[in-house]
């Protein structure tokens, strides 16, 4: 069966069990534009195949940014999560609206999406994090998101400078009354510096939220593997 025939069947909704075949094809040079119809489909099964593929393709999906970003608002938690993971790899710090929306998803109604948003804070490039936090603040005045830039940047005369995350910064976030601030703090506490700082992870040991603990335990495991390596 040709790749074109696989795509035709996938888009018909009759058969979408081509995950590995299509993934291999896109890695081997199958035009990325062929993925676009899957990502704009109203059929959950077809869209699910598309979101899986962008999740796996990461930076290769950059040309599809215009249809990936709207998936952050999709009704499916799985699709929203896949879009976050794909954008972490294929967006840049200049894709401000997309990055701001990812930060807003710390407040998603689904715990799994909250976890993936925390992992974005944990692992994304520093410039992307700043861009996302500032955009989310501008879009949400009077909310916790408007406070978040103050934990990462300071105004000096007429410009802003990035400041390192300190124990005091984490203490204020991790003890905050707003759960979105706590999730942001968990993401920051588990960000690698030269290595993941287990002292920062220990500061969040009192947090009971299941998804926060999932991120913290995973980061502690990473730190342990790094120390043994």
How would you characterize this protein structure?
Helix 4 packs parallel to helix 6 and helix 7 (96-104) crosses helix 9. This protein folds into two domains: 1-90; 109-229, no CATH class. It has a two-stranded antiparallel ribbon with strand order 1-2. Helix content is 61%, strand content 3%. It is elongated and about 60 Å long. It is mainly α.
Task: Walk me through the topology.
Elements: H1 3-12, H2 19-27, H3 36-39, H4 44-57, H5 65-68, H6 77-90, H7 96-104, H8 111-123, H9 126-139, H10 144-147, E1 153-156, E2 159-162, H11 167-174, H12 179-189, H13 198-203, H14 210-228
Antiparallel strand pairs: 1-2
Please give a quick description of this structure:
With 229 residues, this protein is mainly alpha-helical.
Radius of gyration using CA atoms only: 19 Å
User: What gap, in angstroms, lies between the N and C termini?
Assistant: 45 Å
Helix content: 55-70%
Tell me the fraction of residues in β-strands, as a range: under 5%
- What's the tally of helices? 14
The total count of strands amounts to: 2
Q: Strands of the largest sheet, in order across it?
A: 1-2
Q: Main beta sheet: strand number and arrangement?
A: 2 strands, antiparallel
Tertiary shape: elongated
> Uncertain spans, ≥5 residues at pLDDT below 50?
none
Q: What's the helix-strand series?
A: HHHHHHHHHHEEHHHH
Q: Residue-averaged pLDDT, rounded?
A: 90
The helix-and-strand class reads mainly alpha
Structurally, how many domains make up the residues?
2
